[in-house]
Amino acid sequence: MAMASTPAEPKESRVDVLIIGAGPAGLLMASWMARCGIQTRIVDKRGTKIYRGQADGLQSRSLEIFESFGIVDRVLKEANLMAQACIWNPNEDGILHCSNKISLNYYTPEVNRYYPRVLHQGRIERFLLDMIKEDNDLSVERGILPTSLSINEADVEDPSAYPVTVKLRKVSEEDSDGSVDDEEVVHAKYVIGTDGAHSWVRKQIHCKLEGDSKDDFWGVIDIAATTDFPDIRSLTILHSVDIGNMLMIPREKNLNRFYVQLTPTQGHGETTERFDRSKYNPQLILEAAQQILRPYKLSYSRLDWWALYQIGQRVGDRFESHNRVFLAGDAVHTHSPKAGQGMNVSLQDTYNLGWKIAHVVQGLASRSILATYEPERRAVAQELIEFDRKWAGLFSGKPIKDLMDEDGISIRELLQVFTQRDMFMKGIAIDYNTSVLVVKESINAANGDLKHDVNISSVTKSHQSQVQSNQTLAPGIKVGQRLPSASFVRQSDARPSHLLEPLLSNGRWRVLVFTGNIKDAAQSASVSKLVDSLSSPTSFLTKYTPPSSSVDSVFEVLAIHSTPIGDVSIFDFPEVFRRMDEKMGRDYWKIFADGKSEASPGVYDVLGISSRGCVVLVRPDQYVSYLGSLDDVHALDEFFAQFMLDQHAEGNKS
């Protein structure tokens, strides 16, 4: 008698990090993992990458991030630069006219080096895919659908455990026959959900999006426009009297994107309160755009992409579960695309999270640093939602007709909101609160006493150390914000550079030592005292660097001096700034001069650094953690003792 065969079990595997969703946020997360050598898989239910449409706006901070990963040149080569915004609205006679033109980069290069660019999401994904393939031979597994997720709560605090279990199934017709061979059980240390506004991961951890939805309906078309409208190649906001409003964005390859306000309709002319997507097509969107643009004409020779949307402003009630499963991007916050923030804020979510997970997986830091992700990024998401609600209301409303028109939208108010929030929109004014990773201060104007920032996240209060920053030493460098990119000169070869350029995204902390004039005896003594502390066997540089790794694998120490560049050489500086490696030779790339000249101010003047100098600690994501005196030699030891793991302790040696 034949015995019944035992059903085959799905194959099982382990991975440090599983990323679900291969949009820009997921790919940037994969970029961190690839750059830091973390075992990673990234899966996506889509069979192919995006080739047209979707998000397209790139703000200054996103371009700085791409610079840090080495792909900004590819972006700049293909993207369309937008130098000005034009505001069009009806004049007193009801005729559409241009009332205002605004420069889109009215800051100094030290504050903001990049104009906003436009390039469709598919090309951004291509650049990121190429990078992670080159860094770690990592590629996206497409046509893969997650079907279940569970967390073993008993193991979540064990750094060596794989407590998250995800079942995956192939969905591509070519590879799937519906058998058990198409299923896999993956045990992961960490799971990242970057799977969009309808996130499957969000539902698995019972996260709810909280907020509201506006009754504004919008269509979007990407076309090669034929028109007599004079500002077709500028970012343009158009307010009509009673037809609707429109946003025009000049794209790459002679394309233009039109965001067009629509009226719910059951056909031509008949309106209804219900928005029925089946009633719309590109021709109806174009006709609505033509009405708003009158008396100017609009047609197109090529339609590249189109879509419809009704998006409310919502934020997830949680960004993580047990600090093992995380949500990022549209998976945890949604808003309208009219502010050009979707891809930018999503990228910054995983730029914030990636290095933290890498540190924990590598055994460099405790899991306590993961608790900073939600408070840091939730604050940004909430600020974005508040801005988007205000901006969308102004954008969607009708322009004011006269002084008695209480419901009309003032163009002056619209411009005020646009300019006041521009730094936030560019991503260069984000300010992280005090936590285990950020040590702030506040100054009592009455007596000059230094006090801790009162706005401390409850998640990280227990980790607060006695270290305090001294913001007065460099007013132009804000603790909790991204390091500004002032210009300076590399000492070894007089190459002009910017402060952010050497701070590549490779998972390293940077200790920037502004030495002042190294030829001044008092300054030289302060620097020597600091260097002696850094070189001590008990220093954080030694304690938290794995014995088998290079001396700068976790921390890089850079010197920025104010001595005239011709009066010194690199050999006037201590060895910690110019280390010698048996294989690579002398490190010539970590000593910089102020760069002050008759033509331009130097980094000391731009950032308000006095002749006393200072020490600035910069996180791997380029945000400032600490700012202190050269004389406070043990502050950094205390700071890192909160969360870094001793690499020389028994069990941590590698």
Automatic annotation (TrEMBL):
Limits of the FAD-binding domain: 14-387
Keywords of the record: FAD, Flavoprotein, Oxidoreductase
Residues annotated as domain Phenol hydroxylase-like C-terminal dimerisation: 430-647
UniProt key word Oxidoreductase: yes
Pfam families (UniProt xref): FAD_binding_3 (PF01494), Phe_hydrox_dim (PF07976)
Annotated SUPFAM superfamilies: FAD-linked reductases, C-terminal domain (SSF54373), FAD/NAD(P)-binding domain (SSF51905), Thioredoxin-like (SSF52833)
Single Gene Ontology MF annotation: oxidoreductase activity, acting on paired donors, with incorporation or reduction of molecular oxygen, NAD(P)H as one donor, and incorporation of one atom of oxygen
Similarity annotation: Belongs to the PheA/TfdB FAD monooxygenase family.
The protein, known as: Phenol 2-monooxygenase
Species of origin: Gomphillus americanus
Lineage summary: Eukaryota, Fungi, Dikarya, Ascomycota, Pezizomycotina
